Amino acid sequence: MTKKFRAYTLNEFIVRQQNAFPYATGDLTRLLGHIGIASKIVNREVNMAGLVDILGETGTENIQGESVKKLDAFANDQFKSILGSSIEVCGLVTEEEKDLVSFESDLSREGKYIVCMDPLDGSSNIDVNVSIGTIFSIYRRISEIGSASVEKDFLQPGTKQVAAGYVLYGSSTMLVYTTGMGVTGFTLDPSIGEFFLSHAKIVMPAEGRFYSINEGNYINFPQGVKQYIKYCQVDDPSTNRPYTSRYVGSLVADFHRNMLKGGIYIYPETTSMPEGKLRLTYECNPIAFLAEQSGGIATNGRGRRILEIPPESIHQRTPFFTGSPKMMKQAEDFMQLYA
Questions:
Q1: The domain 210-337: what is its CATH number?
Q2: Whole-angstrom Cα distance, residue 34 to residue 175?
Q3: pTM for the complete prediction?
Q4: How far apart are CA 115 and CA 3, in angstroms?
């Protein structure tokens, strides 16, 4: 007799796992639930974007000097509003805000956690109906509880994360997260507005056939990256090459595919951006945590583990390589050979 599958909702699953959390007070459980609620609101607007006056740009730029899309601003406002109403959170850093956002004007709030996030990753894809996402990272605060959150709370290395994840707004909407006990995925049932367990324990294949990189920047890449791309394109059946190039331009979408199917994602330093483009605190650290928890690797391409890089500023950038272990080793070998 076939065993009937139990379809847990996101909240049910989080509650069941609560006792396994290092700090099982229920605060982290509620916080993850609040992120789920905010993502449903953003998902609704993403799905309606072609029907309402929400596409396009606001006419402003974020701290990175990038044009802010209307949907970017909406997502930022929604997460800031919901997390600001959560007594578990004392502060927030996002891509769209120059400075950290402290929620402790009422110092009796006693929030234990801070959140770092990219409210809407892949903004360049918004107007053309291509997959985009939300990336989030959660830390325990290190400043005194009952005081306003301060910058040192947000400058912890990725090894200090207590939870991280992303929401992928695509052909289906998924919320994928880790609390350091593997990676779990949930798919949204839009008919009832609930996330249901769909991927109980995600394991990244040890190798794959996809490489994800913006080859339009090829001329500006380090020589090691250029040689690795050539290696990927060589016809060699014994090593399953050539690999297939797949690049969406949304970190969440590219990483999600590679985590499930096997592959490597590369966003190296370039001659125009020697420190890299992706942000360490709210893009690379959470994705690196997920990569390692699913069996993958995440480094700066030169052997340095992303999670061990100490942030010096909340919008710090870094080169970023992540993916299947065997592919990562090959890529780093090329980087070392042509250093």
A1: 3.40.190.80
A2: 12
A3: 0.93
A4: 39
